[in-house]
Amino acid sequence: MIVILKKGATEPAINEFVEEVKQKGLGVHISTGVDKTIIGLLGDTSKLVPEDFLANDIVETAERVSAPYKMASRSFHPENTVVCIGTGQSGVIECKIGDGKTVPVIAGPCAVETEDQIMNAAFAVKKAGARILRGGAYKPRTSPYSFQGLGKEGIKLLEKAKKETGLPICTELMAISELKNFENVDLIQVGARNFQNFDLLKELGKFNKPVLLKRGLSGTINELLMSAEYIMANGNENVILCERGIRTYDGYTRNCLDVSAVPYLHKVSHLPVVIDPSHACGIRWMVGTLAQSAVAAGADGLEIEVHCCPEKAWSDASQQLPPSQFEELMIKLGKYAAVEGKTM
Length: 344
What we know:
- By secondary structure, the chain is of the alpha/beta class.
- It has helices at 11-22, 115-128, 152-165, 198-206, 221-233, 261-268, 277-281, 284-297, 323-339; strands at 2-5, 27-32, 37-42, 59-63, 83-85, 95-97, 105-108, 132-134, 169-172, 187-190, 211-214, 239-243, 273-275, 301-305.
- It has an 8-stranded parallel beta barrel with strand order 7-8-9-10-11-12-13-14, surrounded by 5 helices.
- It is elongated and about 70 Å long.
């Protein structure tokens, strides 16, 4: 349920109202916009009558929210959420996702392999205009015999690349037990295979780091938003949604990119939406076209895999762009973004 307060409601009156709501055993989420303040009621509101709140002088209206997700809903939070990545201190670049002015690109190799490999990739993607460095230290692989990542050592190499380039770093978390190694990671990625690992999501809600939440291989939009709700309900509202392709009956690409997810998510949720064209198709020559469609659809950012020598990559060689192609793509994407009045 949401309660919309009248314009000009005083802070003491709002605080008194919030305390009354809390005494009913409900949680409260306050969203203050330019024109209105919205109080979101969290918990079992089935026995509450919306009209009863109108007796309070500061209440303009009250209504039920039909969506099962609350904190991720635009009804609870009409203004777009802007997630800040990086500190802006000690040489680390600050990047904003969801500001409506920029389309930041998260770029780097699928997996961290060696120090030279990640360092070369980091400098290459920064030169081309990427704002965040990605690289998998822990790799969820279909086959147990495939390269599983360097683990903690991979995190250390990413931290070194961050220090050398100033780029914030993004890498995937697979297990709660590894969370202690992510203190210096700027953006924690939850992969498609873990997007409904609810225990993991709860812990990330208690961890003060932005989260890039990927849609599951067969996940619905509602399931993606409910997974975001798990993180937000546990205290962390810095969530970025990521569309990375879903499985369909056709197999000509690795997955099928659901571009329509971008405008729909923007309609029902205030959270930023990023598209990963690399995993969506799994084919190098298609990545650029899908990235362009993502910008045209209004995506708040992109995640693109880049490797200095893709043919020798230890994982996902077929979808990673060499730096020269990535640089060309960034120039082209800049033109697409300019049409929408944005920059990369």
